[in-house]
């Protein structure tokens, strides 16, 4: 009676060995590789460049119509080049594709290119990427467009239009089957061509019908998504949108507490692996925002006015802030403290036009890529030590920059 039992155990052991051997075979079937690409728009010339981050080699130079602001899609497969002064948006294919396989993700790398689809309308401005689409807002067009990325990559335009009531400098963000849309005042303006101020936020369903009442948000500006929440900067506080049921998202105002100095938030970024937001608070302060905390605001004062800031997607507790004195600050968002700083560029004053050439930040592979338009360089800085590692020469005045890439299995 013991022999069959022993045989079964032996057969089980052999089967397990075969499974492990098969797993090993699958593991040996691919290698891990990492690829990062920078997309850089020139401040003066109407051109966007694609650059290999490791080698610094230019992968492509794409002519557009004018000064371009760059926004990477959520997937990283496309980059939108918004040219507000020329009423057009071009879209670049990054050539980087990740596909998820549960325990790992695959990475495919192809050529970069300018897609044949363009979007035209009166003063396109804010582009908000989300999941498999992006929302493009036309300040003077009275509309926003929800753009399907998969169709874009096939050279087609699949667009759903959202009415924005009237032209204004606003924003639209999707949340499930609903869209959050800024609301302008209906009062007549002193000058016929003057855009009206924003006074609130409304929710519309997939038929374009408003759901519920407008939420007050004076001078609404700046938005970000973190986990399932969306935040908007307002004069009164930070307006939070939470997913709801069939009645649509729920809107909640986090009022600025009395112990904060005078100021408000108008630029926001959202945490990817932790639910929180980082926003400006005036020009020389930033604020950490935890919507579910009893005291949601944590103020951090800066020595001078900020030029740019962003979060590290791979190191969720790291944020980087560049100030006009040329110093880069590493902010620990858990402690709410600046851990260290280092000088990375010459001073760039915030005085002058808001779109004057100043450095911009991107994060790639544990390093920061910082445009230095005055010296025609991208400065590559170690994200922890804040020390410059190398520079990448770029013709002209490199300005707006995004980084796309990561690691994955290559079969």
UniProtKB/TrEMBL annotation:
SUPFAM superfamilies assigned: YVTN repeat-like/Quinoprotein amine dehydrogenase
Signal peptide (UniProt feature, chain positions): 1-27
Keywords assigned: Signal
Protein's recorded name: Uncharacterized protein
Organism of provenance: Peteryoungia ipomoeae
Lineage: Bacteria, Pseudomonadati, Pseudomonadota, Alphaproteobacteria, Hyphomicrobiales
